[in-house]
Amino acid sequence: xxxxxxxxxxxxxxxxxxxxxxxxxxxxxxxxxxxxxxxxxxxxxxxxxxxxxxxxxxxxxxxxxxxxxxxxxxxxxxxxxxxxxxxxxxxxxxxxxxxxxxxxxxxxxxxxxxxxxxxxxxxxxxxxxxxxxxxxxxxxxxxxxxxxxxxxxxxxxxxxxxxxxxxxxxxxxxxxxxxxxxxxxxxxxxxxxxxxxxxxxxxxxxxxxxxxxxxxxxxxxxxxxxxxxxxxxxxxxxxxxxxxxxxxxxxxxxxxxxxxxxxxxxxxxxxxxxxxxxxxxxxxxxxxxxxxxxxxxxxxxxxxxxxxxxxxxxxxxxxxxxxxxxxxxxxxxxxxxxxxxxxxxxxxxxxxxxxxxxxxxxxxxxxxxxxxxxxxxxxxxxxxxxxxxxxxxxxxxxxxxxxxxxxxxxxxxxxxxxxxxxxxxxxxxxxxxxxxxx
Length: 438
Hints:
The structure is a single chain. This protein has 20 helices and twelve strands. It is α/β, with parallel strands linked by helices. A hairpin with a 2-residue loop joins β4 and β5. The protein is globular and about 75 Å long. Strands 1, 2, 3, 6, 11 and 12 form a six-stranded mixed beta sheet that branches. A four-stranded mixed beta sheet has the order 8-9-7-10.
């Protein structure tokens, strides 16, 4: 009996010690900031083949820990992109989200509206070593919602126009200059669209996948106000853009061009992300994707009221509003998103573009692109920098995707002639505005 009572006492003492140790560890970690948790996804954010996705992050962590003795950064590895939103949502529900984390695509406004993201304006203003002007404007603006900075950009991908050089050379047409226009674009598309084998059917085309959104951006159209409460689809710039796409589609004489046609080398132009250029330009991916023709990329053509502007796809990172280590979290966020060393390393290990001007304007960009495509790339890196400088931030308000889905469906009907264009756009504007005010 004595032994039983003694065993019970020891078990209680051990349990109490364990609880006390756990409580002490929590207090110690909270007060000393020894452990900083980071949330990240594995693989490429841009859905293209990639190498070691942890290389840049691990190097940044190593530098950060060296500059902050005693601090340790931890992350869970192996979370795939498709699983990451659910993993992060579970962490948020449990109140255990990381101090600093990548923000899943399409979830930015939702997470911010839950109060989970810390507002960064105050931290940025108090930090003499941090200047918003260090970033490309479109990339930095991607981290804002209704004028408040909730996140910093880590990496961006602009859209460029891929050009089938082999096809144009065969037709005796020069690759368009940097400042080419819609008029030139349409003219080349009409010239190359033809029946090349004499069987009575068109088998060569001008363009694939250039839609009304690309045209609206290139014509300087703004589709929504900053708050995401009002749309401007009835604007003349939007109407001009949709009319142009209708003309462009007519050049194909009713044939619906597919991605396979471009992959086979039968299409002159296709808008694609810069990450695709980085991935599929060099050997061996080039021969797996586009084996029968040489290609390069240039700026998008400009509409009469625009400058060939595109939207940026940007990977954002933020700080949990519930983090007890605000200062450390901000310093680590800067190591990832504001360090020139990290940003230059992204050029080597990822497929996107740095969001810091210093990194993009360094000699490293030209050197790395040259290594990617030895002897075959004529890309002028000033084009990439100019595209980054002019690119617009993709809106982040909650109903953005729903509004764009509605617009896609209605404008598709207009392009097919089912709805009159002028009245149709005004009607669409009213419907989108109604949706936005729900």
